[in-house]
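User: Okay, second chain of the day. Same drill as before: sequence in, structure tokens out.
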Amino acid sequence: MPPSSRRSARLAAQAQRSAADSVSDELAQQFGLAGRTVLPIPYINDIATIYTQAEERRAQLDQGTSTQEMLIYYNATTSHLNALHSTNRDRNYPGRITFFGDEAGLVFFKLVQAVHECAHLCLSLNIHDILVMMGLRNKYVPVGSSTYKGIGTRQKEGDSGLRPDPPRSAGNQFPTLIIEAGNSESLSQLHKNKDWWFDNSPPNQPQGDVRIVLLIMVYRPTKRIVVEQWHRSSSPSATVVITPHPHKPFSLYDSSHWVVKGAPMVIPFQDVFLRPTNGGETDIILTEASFANMGMQCWGTDTRV
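Assistant: Same drill. Structure tokens below.
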């Protein structure tokens, strides 16, 4: 093919891609994308670019020059994700993934930071300690950031979670409890994450349904943390707010310098273990003191406290 013909073909391909490279108003509204940076996903043969973009965004987050912890791409397909996996020998994504399927073409990579990791791990370990005290150490399995296949081509990783052991007779072994953490600027996305778990694990389906989603919103400027407990309803069943005391010095070592509203938070035992309590078993109760300690530990790990 003559050079001029090759150039024309390339320009035609670029024009075709440009015409397709846009997020519809419907999708933008549905996923709360207004004011957020949304990128066209790179070509499959250049998919490793995403790792570079992720590192650049992490640096911006650490330096405080960006507040968007999500890398968001449109026109994404399962083929793109497979190609992205193949570029990494550990088969890890550049961030925790939420893929809304080939039909929507949207994929979100959450770039986890120390304060968010500490938040969900503190909550998860607190629940773990309570269950161990009940004698249930070998009756559940922590699932961490495992990847779960949803309806169609959808897939997702949580931050923490657990499922009963022995498991339900379900192929995909969805957890009964999921924990997701994020910053305040991603509040709408956290709620979309919650919806993903419920929408993609409907009751009475082979994969088993998610019963509870705990959301942790981290507000860096005010050092406030909000924890919501969601079931399959239109509003949270419980909300706990953790803030520094307004009339005492900021402290990472004295829980009396922290205010916790909404505690205790009660997580129904039956929703986690799919059976009634026996003997000394009770609902999982997260106390005011545990939330105050969680706040201090989270901000103790933040690079910008």
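The mean pLDDT is 88.

User: Thanks, on to the next one.
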